[in-house]
């Protein structure tokens, strides 16, 4: 393991512990050249499926790509990064358990939409507008009406209030 401070390869492990997730090992190392300490994580290399894109291309599953989309959708919303990471951990675990070699991007997108619907409805609408490629305001209104119909009158007022406060024209 190369030292991040001096780039030397020689170091020693001074402490090893199970990671918070129980799926990794955290190692404290000390560089034998400069004496500085750093932390590394070791985890089992899992083979992720290929994602079949809408145009038929195949590309490796990219957790960070999904994470970035979810973070954009939840920006300025009461959703923790831990909730997003937990969802992504479960998504990857699902792929490992089902042993799928290829998975359509539409299936992943629907899983993300379902998760966001449970985490935060405003984030769900934001993500859906991009993922489902709303072409005009009618598409957006149709999706919103479906969500409002499921919520009932009080829930609909609350959601409309949230949308007005967080997605207004002055939002930057």
Overview of the molecule:
The chain is α+β, with helices and mostly antiparallel strands. The chain has 2 domains: 33 residues; 117 residues, no CATH class. The chain is 49% helix and 19% strand. The chain has 5 helices and 6 strands. A 3-stranded antiparallel sheet has the order 1-2-3, with no helix packed on it. Strands 5-4-6 form a 3-stranded mixed sheet. A hairpin with a 5-residue loop joins β1 and β2. α1 runs antiparallel to α2. It is elongated. The two termini are 43 Å apart. 13% of the residues are buried. The C terminus is likely disordered.
How many β-strand runs? 6
Strand content: 15-25%
Fraction of residues in helix: 40-55%
Q: How much is the average pLDDT?
A: 84
Q: What letter string, H or E per element, gives the SSE order?
A: EEEEEHHEHHH
Largest beta-sheet characterization: 3 strands, antiparallel
